[in-house]
Amino acid sequence: MTDDVPPEIEKVLISEEEIRAKVAELAAQIDRDYAGREVLLVGVLKGAVMIMADLARALKTPVSMEFMAVSSYGSSTSSSGVVRILKDLDREVADKHVLVVEDIIDSGLTLSWLLRNISSRGPASVEVCALLRKPEAAKIELPVKYIGFDIPSEFVVGYGLDYVERYRDLPFVGLLKPEVYAG
Ligand code: IMP
Ligand code: MG
């Protein structure tokens, strides 16, 4: 339900409809770029589950789907760039056209590590599709070919993104009320 916004949400930043339109646009672009080839979508758990599921269905290109779970060492609120694999890919990616699917790129450190890791396994190609990007990541050299939305440097939830494991199920991307963090 599009209008069903819980009281903890201060503001809807990107609506369900806007996300749907953008995913369709990204899928069309990816279909053109990969014409005649198969794509291996690699979703980064857990945040990428929504974009992964919607993108896979919007694509006409045949895909297979793999998931990785990674975790930064140290502080959970800011990325250190040192990454630990919690769940690795189940299959080899050698000679495959890999498209890494991410919810959001903040500092870009996690993605930068992930790209080095995947590239070392000898895929035919590696590209990135991220629904959201914050300004800090836009500054660093990251080969992100497909971007949904550039957003301000604020903490967002919904459509896969969580605050302490909540709000991932919201169909839109929004800002939390300040009292939610305080409480
Ligand atoms: P970074 O790009 O290495 O700084 O880390 C990106 C990861 O941090 C994302 O995959 C998210 O899991 C998390 N993250 C960054 N910004 C937000 C946000 O605004 N809301 C929820 N999670 C976020
Ligand atoms: Mg993530």
Description of the molecule:
The longest helix is centred in the first third of the chain and has 18 residues, at 16-33. The relative contact order is 0.20. This protein is globular. The strands form 2 sheets. It has a 6-stranded mixed beta sheet with strand order 4-3-2-5-6-7. The protein has a 3-stranded antiparallel beta sheet with strand order 1-9-8. The chain starts with 8 loop residues before the first strand and ends with a helix. It has 5 helices and 9 strands. The chain has one domain: Rossmann fold (3-Layer(aba) Sandwich), CATH 3.40.50.2020. The chain is α/β, with parallel strands linked by helices and 183 residues long. Bound molecules: inosinic acid and magnesium ion. Residues 47, 79, 102-111, 137, 155-157, 161 line the site of inosinic acid (IMP).
| CATH architectural label | 3-Layer(aba) Sandwich
User: How many structural domains in the coordinates?
Assistant: 1
Number of discrete helical segments: 5
User: Which residues form runs of ≥5 with pLDDT under 50?
Assistant: none
Query: How far is the N terminus from the C terminus?
Result: 27 Å
Describe this structure in a few short sentences.
By secondary structure, the protein is an alpha/beta fold. The chain has helices at 16-33, 49-58, 109-119, 135-139, 178-182; strands at 9-14, 39-45, 63-72, 83-87, 97-105, 125-133, 146-150, 156-157, 173-176.
